[in-house]
Amino acid sequence: MDASVQHEQATIPDGDKLSSVMQTIAEHKGCGTSGGSGKASCGSGAGENDLPPEIWEKVKNHPCYSEEAHHHYARMHVAVAPACNIQCNYCNRKYDCANESRPGVVSEKLTPEQAAKKVLAVASTIPQMTVLGIAGPGDPLANPEKTFKTFELIARTAPDIKLCLSTNGLALPDHVDTIAGFNVDHVTITINMVDPEIGAKIYPWVFWKHKRYTGVEAAKLLTDRQLQGLEMLTERGILCKVNSVMIPGVNDKHLVEVNRAVKSRGAFLHNIMPLISSPEHGTVFGLTGQRGPTAQELKALQDECEGEMNMMRHCRQCRADAVGLLGEDRSAEFTTDKIMAMEVNYDIDSRKAYQEAVESERVAKVVARQEELASLAGQSSDIKLLVAVATKGSGLINEHFGHAKEFQVYELSTAGAKFVGHRRVDLYCQGGYGDEDSLETVIRAINDCHAVFVAKIGGCPKSDLQAAGIEPVDQFAHEFIEKSAIAWFKSYLDKVNSGEIQHVVRGDAEIRQGALISAA
Amino acid sequence: MTLKIIASQCTSCSACEPECPNVAISEKNGTFVIDPKKCTECIGHFDEPQCAAVCPVDNTCVIDNSFPRYQPPA
């Protein structure tokens, strides 16, 4: 494709000096800063700077498989798979709230035919929607007829859309050939343990071959099937992402071992997510008071696992019927009633043209980052800090502080700007009136950050942020995130070096658990 | 006896429907119901009633005492 060729050329650094700087950075640090054309995601390249072209082609517009892509491309899930074959202590299938964003939750079930219509309706309205996933609300492979019928219909009517699915893995080995047959080239398996003793604390039971298994026996069966399925997929060249839920005191230390086990079986990306366990969800963990990790605990574990394997840090733990960019949910615009009434005009050419425009925007962003990074080359400092960014997408600082539903978090060092996560916050500003409590929520969520980059911010929150030790930065409004963050970091280092300011280490931050209050 | 599904607890996930060896389960008014004339408690098919074994909500597929015990054919 033209766009990818253009992309490759545009990101090859000029001159030997810059190349060697980039190489040094790539060897020491992973992630977005490692430059290179095909770096798919956050995570280290460990010498292998670029992805093979065929892999880059698979992930470059998949928002869940590429941190880079998630700023530009959207995904949708269709809730055609309500049944599940295992029980997890962090899941309660009875709970559904339209304002709640988390896996396993859905507002309405769809038939495969309704799902296919919905995909066409969304693809016509959101041209950057490139990926269709089936993620439940149960397990796609516990509903194989519905899942594969949906894939069949979509492959026929919207052939440019990538198909993917997310499974607990219990039934996976039975369906690998069918998955391959439908050209599904992205499969996510949720693997929370490889030790059945630990698994018994997470899974009360599994249902397999007409029998309910419990305890260690159930967990043993599940882990064997998961790892077998993973091996079968990677043997066939299907990209596999492994999701793990981090449950402090249960599997937090064990996930390093899980990481090794899945890496050795060829998993492409590991996504460690924080446990969501509010008591009002009625899950076992919610009711027993099992806590989720703090932002620092999560990041420390992700950093520890980031070896030769890519770590996903941009997961929004979205609903099984989510629509839109990660971090936004437009599912309310596409209810069954609305889509059935929609005139759908699926135009593959205009979608392609739109996506080419997105590609050139993305190339410009990468070039801007490289240039700014080159100017950091002479600096040496051990300082590493976090900053929060208010963005609506496209890799730009383009959101008002008060309108941000979430902040993206970047780690800055002389190696560059690395995406390390995001923090959900309540809308601070609703109808133009600031709300004191919400501001406190925002500050708790980004308390580990030295600065927050926004397109605009009012006087009051500005002074409150400053009082909390977080610098509000609005001078880079509507500019590229990484380029701006590096430029700000450079001046921060200058101020530290000149003695104008003293570098202090920030505290921990809270991972928000409650319902997302939708503005819609 | 036969099994019944407590409608107020049914999540309508449909997991039970394809598991029933007697095709006794169907969707009705948004939740699933068991046809008592077809249900055999899975006797003769499996060790345990399949609907209860796969149901994600405890005590939702339960024995209905208002029907006589299922008698397997001799």
From TrEMBL, chain A:
Domain Radical SAM core residue range list: 70-319
Pathway: Cofactor biosynthesis; Fe-Mo cofactor biosynthesis
Gene3D superfamilies: Aldolase class I, Dinitrogenase iron-molybdenum cofactor biosynthesis domain
Recorded superkingdom: Bacteria
InterPro entries, per the entry: Aldolase_TIM, Di-Nase_FeMo-co_biosynth, DiNase_FeMo-co_biosyn_sf, MoaA_NifB_PqqE_Fe-S-bd_CS, Nase_CF_NifB, NifB_C, rSAM, rSAM_sf
Cited SUPFAM superfamilies: Nitrogenase accessory factor-like, Radical SAM enzymes
Swiss-Prot/TrEMBL cofactor(s): [4Fe-4S] cluster
Keywords of the record: 4Fe-4S, Iron, Iron-sulfur, Lyase, Metal-binding, Nitrogen fixation, S-adenosyl-L-methionine
NCBIfam families reported for this sequence: nifB
Function: Involved in the biosynthesis of the iron-molybdenum cofactor (FeMo-co or M-cluster) found in the dinitrogenase enzyme of the nitrogenase complex in nitrogen-fixing microorganisms. NifB catalyzes the crucial step of radical SAM-dependent carbide insertion that occurs concomitant with the insertion of a 9th sulfur and the rearrangement/coupling of two [4Fe-4S] clusters into a [8Fe-9S-C] cluster, the precursor to the M-cluster.
Entry similarity comment: Belongs to the radical SAM superfamily. NifB family.
Protein's name according to its UniProt entry: FeMo cofactor biosynthesis protein NifB
Automatic annotation (TrEMBL), chain B:
Superkingdom as given in the UniProt entry: Bacteria
PROSITE patterns found in the cross-reference section: 4FE4S_FER_1, 4FE4S_FER_2
Keywords of the record: Iron, Iron-sulfur, Metal-binding
InterPro entries assigned to the protein according to its UniProt record, in alphabetical order: 4Fe4S_Fe-S-bd (IPR017896), 4Fe4S_Fe_S_CS (IPR017900), YfhL-like (IPR047927)
Boundaries of every 4Fe-4S ferredoxin-type domain copy: 1-30
Organism, as annotated: Bradyrhizobium denitrificans
Protein name (Swiss-Prot/TrEMBL): YfhL family 4Fe-4S dicluster ferredoxin
